[in-house]
Amino acid sequence: MNITVILRLLVILYVAGSACASVVGSEAHKNVLLIISDDCNWSLGCWGHPVVKTPNIDRLSKRGIRFKRAYCQISVCNPSRASFLTGLRPKRTGVRNNSVDFRDVRPDILTMPQYLREHGYWTGTVGKVFHHGERDEKSWSWCADWRVDELHGTKGVSRNVTRGRLPWTSYKEVESGELPDDRIAELAVKKIRGFSQRKPFFLAVGFIRPHDVFFAPKRFFDMYPLVSLELNEKLPGQKLPRGAYGVAAWKDAYEMMTNQDKKELLRAYYACVSYMDEQVGKVLAAQSVGRAL
After folding, report:
1. Average pLDDT of 65-94?
2. DSSP letter, residue 110
3. In this predicted model, what pLDDT tens digit does every residue of 238-274 receive, in sequence order?
4. 96: buried, middle or exposed (CB in 10 Å: 19+, 13-18, 0-12)?
5. Quick check: 133 and 166 in contact, CB under 8 A?
6. Is the peptide bond before 79 cis (omega within 30 degrees of 0)?
7. Most buried among 50, 55, 85, 183, by the most CB within 10 A?
């Protein structure tokens, strides 16, 4: 299956070079920074994309390990996150849509941050990590208040390329106002630089972009002039596997899009990827000077 179809999340696991003494035994345990980007496919420089600019993720990729066969378990937010944060397939978590809280169907399930917390780690979350369970008391020592009203609190040129038929096909070239990923990066940086616990830490940072709606500062749109973008009109026909998430109800709206519409939406996605990459760079820069790391 085409990798651009099956990847929904970019997950970066960064293990700090220095260590804190663990409260469990005498062995030193590494600090861990988990960075998640929602709906990020292979449109990254480190994956060889010819257009998209992601210098911060590219630099990190050169220092670490890139997994070429790391597929998401299911192409829906909630069950995918519940799965990789517990190590269980969606069939075992009981989470198969975006409305179910994993604690309601599996109250005793063990999550990755919960395991670390039970073994001496301070655990914190900022941004979209779990789809539900953001304030799960078993998992987190600290949970940030990161939400902002980007729909009404930002200004800039905006458009819905399906003429309103599909609300999530909207983009905005933001010229003023705060976006969620601005707040998420800011809070993560403050927490890393000011961390004073005597425990090792696990900090999960979940960026929203490039998930719709496609809002990003205008300068990132300017990086991708429409005349320079090419549409891939030669995608091979694929028979969807059994159980694939259906999009038949959206088919008519997508087919009404012109090539101009498609290019605008592609540019918006690329802009959001580069914007997200800049936020990743801020967090990585903070860990390089943070006392805890």
Report:
1. 90
2. P
3. 666 676 666 666 878 888 999 999 999 999 999 999 9
4. middle
5. no
6. no
7. 85
The answer to whether residue 164 sits within a structural domain is: no
Spatial distance between the Cα atoms of 266 and 278, rounded to a whole number of angstroms:
19
Which amino acid would we find at residue 276?
M
Tokens describing residue 166: 């599909």
H or E, element range at 3: helix 3-6
β-pair partners for 203: 33, 124
pLDDT band at 87 (very low <50, low <70, confident <90, very high): very high
More confident residue, 288 or 230: 230
Q: Is residue 158 part of a domain?
A: no
Distance CA 203, CA 247 (A): 35
CA 161/CA 264 separation, integer angstroms: 8
CA pseudo-torsion sign 233, 236, 239, 241: negative
CATH of the domain at 121: 3.40.720.10
Number of domains making up the chain: 1
- What's the CA gap between 204 and 184, in Å, rounded? 11
Neighbours of 17 (CB within 10 A): 10
> Is-contact 161 257, C-beta < 8 A?
yes
Integer Cα distance of 28 and 129 in angstroms:
26
Dig out the tokens for 91 from the structure: 């069939």
Question: What's residue 14's pLDDT?
Answer: 66
Q: Is residue 223 part of a domain?
A: no
| Containing structural domain, residue 137 | 3-153+176-212+274-289
d(CA 85, CA 129): 9
Position of tokens 């969606």? 90
pLDDT score of 25 more than 50: no
